[in-house]
Amino acid sequence: MRVEVINTGTELLLGNVINTHVAYFGQQLFKLGLRIDRQICIPDGDAIREAMKETFGRCEILLVTGGLGPTTDDITREIVAEMLGRELHFDDSILEGMRERLQKRSIPVQERMKRQAMVPEGAKVLVNDHGTAPGLYFPSDSPDVPHIFLLPGPPRELKPMFENKLLPIVKTLRPANMPKLECRIYRAVGMGESIVEQRIGLQLTEIPGLEVGYCARPNEVDLRLIGPSALLDAHEPTVIAALGENLASREEETLEQVVVTKLIAAGKTLATAESCTGGLLANRITNVPGASAVFSEGYVTYANDAKMRLLGVPEGILKAHGAVSEETAKAMAEGARRSAGTQFALATTGIAGPAGGTPEKPVGTVFVGLVEEGKEPEAHKFYFPLDRETFKWVATQSALDLLRKRLNSLGK
Hints:
Helices cover about 40% and strands about 25% of the residues. The protein has helices at about 10-15, 20-30, 45-55, 75-85, 90-105, 155-175, 195-205, 230-245, 255-265, 280-285, 305-310, 315-320, 325-340, 390-410; strands spanning about 1-10, 35-40, 60-65, 90, 120, 125, 135-140, 145-150, 180-190, 210-215, 220-225, 245-250, 270-275, 295-300, 345-350, 365-370, 380-385. It has a six-stranded mixed beta sheet with strand order 2-1-3-8-7-6, with helices on both faces. It has a five-stranded mixed beta sheet with strand order 14-13-15-16-17, sandwiched between helices.
């Protein structure tokens, strides 16, 4: 079945509100074996008329969000009724539900709000348990007209309605013989998508029934395989072997989630010392639920004085090698580990730019220090000539990945 989505809302096109609807729809519908074929975003008002005309005869299910409210630019309901030749009738039960909801908040029903109780003939009302604007479902009565679902725009209203009211209907529309597909994500760190494809993608694309895709982000790539479970099982060993130690996750986990999980499993603790990344490394780790079991403390030592005072970095190292150096990264990591009493510590020191670089250490240079209790500190040099924000992100990616690989080697 072909599914299309129309998101209405001028605020979405102005960038005042981020459109999260299509991502949510895609994730939920795929569980039923359905996929979105097309999505468009249009402003409030009459633009929905032409957008809907384009979908008729091209899809079997149409999801429309927004334009069901009480104001003059909320005309989705009226335009759909007009296009389908349906009369609008007032539904007293909707008005009563609206009145009860607003009464709890001591808000009277405004005359304009009563528009939301108008229901086109033949439409099924999708009760809104979290707002005043109900959704509507128009069953298809012609091969040229899709099943149409009108949904409120606010996510806090849309998502419960989608899961509790819309999905049960869609399940009945889905053909019984539609094949059940599975999507598996293999997250590789420290390599580009062209390298991933070179290793495995070309041979996989020739396999009938197997869909191969990629999603690249700074310092990591998701390899996406879609197909029947048995087919994925047959080729998964090839993927795992080809990606090798670059394969960080098969569960769509973030790199920080992987690291925290491995630290917990190993019964190890971690501290961080950051200069150029300004606390981003500690922030990413502490965003993971359960990180308190393994993360002790973090230091943001941007100035040299802070590196000496808080981490015990010798002044001689800073004078002889500079703040951005292998020696300083090692000393920062060891100072953090020693002060926190942890088994591991990570440190970052680099030049984010746009100024401050030299021919020997250009903008984008970063050293990552890693130390494990009882072992000599080590430092790794990287070069990321990127904007400041991306540089910081990739530097923390590199730090987390170094620790991930070290944790993988424990006990070997």
